[in-house]
Design a protein that fits this description.
155 residues, mainly beta, three-stranded antiparallel beta sheet
């Protein structure tokens, strides 16, 4: 929320080559998502959410105008982390890759997060910094054996 991003566009001809002399214009089809200048500098709304078809980009060349709409997603603060899979059944010594996603208050996945993995019960197994869990050699049921935390948001 509140961040600024500059959109850029290219005009391509029918054979995929750049077209010269094209002018670009930007506008908001849904002002609740934020604001944008004619030059494409977008400032996100302070309200997180998913805004379908919120941004309109137009290109004009020799009096002909083409336009397209784009969705805007504004992610809020992390309020939940989902680990996948949340429950596993594996053989001693077997390795399985776990993954995590941070969600905001609207259930929107937040990109650019780093996660810290920790095995809470060493009998259950070990886990590396990438989320690769190696089962221990003592068979059993280990509830809550792995924990994942968000440690940094990438710029």
């Amino acid at each position: 929320p509140g961040q600024t991003f500059v959109f850029a566009a290219r005009a391509l001809g029918q054979y995929g080559r750049d077209v010269s002399g094209a002018r670009f214009f930007w506008s908001m089809a849904d002002g609740a998502a934020g604001t944008v200048t004619d030059q494409g500098a977008f400032t996100a709304s302070p309200r997180p959410g998913v805004y379908p078809a919120a941004l309109e980009g137009k290109v004009e060349r020799n009096g002909e105008v083409r336009s397209a709409l784009a969705d805007i997603t504004i992610a809020g603060a992390v309020v939940q982390i989902q680990m996948t899979p949340s429950r596993v059944e594996i053989q001693p010594g077997q390795v399985i890759a776990l993954s995590a996603v941070g969600l905001d208050e609207n259930g929107v996945a937040i990109p650019g997060l780093l996660y810290q993995w920790e095995a809470l019960d060493p009998r259950a197994g070990t886990i590396d910094r990438l989320g690769h869990f190696t089962a221990g050699h003592i068979p059993g049921v280990y509830e809550g054996a792995v924990e994942v935390r968000v440690v940094q948001r990438l710029p």
